[in-house]
Write a structure and sequence with these properties.
This protein is of the alpha/beta class and 275 residues long. The protein has helices at 15-27, 44-60, 82-99, 113-126, 141-148, 173-190, 202-215, 229-236, 251-261, 263-274; strands spanning 31-36, 67-71, 103-105, 130-135, 154-158, 194-198, 219-224, 241-247. Helix content is 48%, strand content 16%. It comes from Halomarina rubra.
Length: 275
C-alpha cells in the first residue's frame, strides 16, 4: 500500500487506481498519460510481464476516458536486446490500435537513444497515434529532431533527467534552457504533428503559447502528477493539458526521485512527516 506521503506523486499500485485518478483529473479538464513504474530489466520475464500489463490497461480504459500510456524502453526489454524491446513495443501498439489509444515512448539513457528512435519510427509507420520523447540537454537532439520531423504523431520535449557523459550534454541550466527554447521553435515551425511541451517552467510554457500563436502548430502541455497541479487545472481551461501519472508497486524509488529533485517537493515530504 502506498503511504499518504507518496500518494501525491503516484496514483496507486493497481490499474484500477490509475484509472480512478485519470477520471478525477479529467473532471477538472486535465487528461492523463499512464505509466506503469518499472525499468532497467535485465531479463525478459519482467519485461514481458509489464508488456502484458500495459496491454490489459489499454483494454480496461473506458471509452468515456481520454487517456493514453507511456512506456519506458528499459521496461519493455531494451537492455535484454533491441529486438525484445521492438517486439514488446509492437505488442503494446497492437492493442492500442485495437482500442484506438495513443502510445508514448519515453527516452532514457544516452546509450539507448538510437535503438529507441529506430523502434519508434518502425512502429509509427504502421500506427501513427504514437509519440516520442526527446531530451534537450543532449547535444545530439538537434539532429534527432530533424530525423523524426517527418514521422507522424507527436514529439514530447523535456529538459532531460539522466546523467550522460559531460561531453554529450549542454552544461549548465541556462545552456539547457536555451536548447529547449531552440528545439521548441524548430518543432513549432517545422513539425506537422503535435508538440508535447514537457515542462513545469512557466517561461517555457509561455514561450510555447507564443510559438503556437505564431505558427498555429498543435501543442499540449505535459506535467507530472503532484507538481504544480493548480497550474495544470488553470491551463487546461484554455489549452490541452496532460498529466503524467505513474502507478504500480515499484513506487518507492520514483517517489524519492521526486522528493530530491525539487526543494518544494522536499518541503512537502517534510511537512507530511512532521504532521
Amino acid at each position: 500500500m502506498i503511504p499518504p506521503i507518496a500518494d501525491r506523486f503516484v496514483a496507486g499500485e493497481s490499474a484500477a487506481a490509475v484509472l480512478d485518478h485519470a477520471r478525477r483529473m479529467e473532471a477538472s479538464g486535465v487528461k492523463s498519460i499512464c505509466n506503469l513504474l518499472g525499468e532497467h530489466y535485465q531479463e525478459r520475464p519482467p519485461a514481458d510481464g509489464d508488456t502484458a500489463a500495459y496491454r490489459q490497461l489499454l483494454r480496461d480504459m473506458p471509452d468515456t476516458l481520454d487517456a493514453c500510456v507511456s512506456v519506458k524502453p528499459s521496461q519493455l526489454g531494451i537492455e535484454v536486446g533491441d529486438a525484445v524491446f521492438e517486439e514488446n513495443l509492437g505488442r503494446v501498439v497492437e492493442v492500442a490500435e485495437q482500442e484506438g489509444r495513443f502510445v508514448w515512448v519515453d527516452m532514457e539513457d544516452y546509450t539507448t537513444v538510437d535503438a529507441t528512435i529506430d523502434a519508434f519510427e518502425a512502429a509509427a509507420r504502421d500506427y501513427p497515434k504514437m509519440g516520442l520523447c526527446l531530451q534537450s540537454n543532449m547535444k545530439r537532439t538537434d539532429e534527432d529532431l530533424e530525423r523524426v520531423a517527418d514521422v507522424a504523431g507527436k514529439i514530447r520535449l523535456v529538459k532531460g533527467a539522466y546523467d550522460p557523459p559531460k561531453e554529450l550534454v549542454h552544461q549548465g541550466k541556462e545552456a539547457v534552457n536555451e536548447a529547449y527554447g531552440r528545439h521548441m521553435e524548430y518543432l513549432f515551425a517545422e513539425f506537422d504533428g503535435t508538440v508535447g511541451v514537457g515542462s513545469h517552467d512557466p517561461r517555457m510554457i509561455d514561450r510555447a503559447i507564443a510559438l503556437h500563436d505564431e505558427f498555429g502548430t498543435d501543442f499540449e502541455i505535459q506535467m507530472l502528477m503532484g507538481v504544480r497541479e493548480d497550474a495544470q487545472v488553470d491551463l487546461a481551461g484554455e489549452y490541452e493539458v496532460y498529466q503524467y501519472v505513474p502507478y504500480g508497486d515499484k513506487w518507492a524509488s520514483y517517489f524519492y526521485r521526486r522528493v530530491l529533485e525539487r526543494k518544494e517537493n522536499a518541503l512537502f515530504a517534510l511537512r507530511a512527516i512532521l504532521s
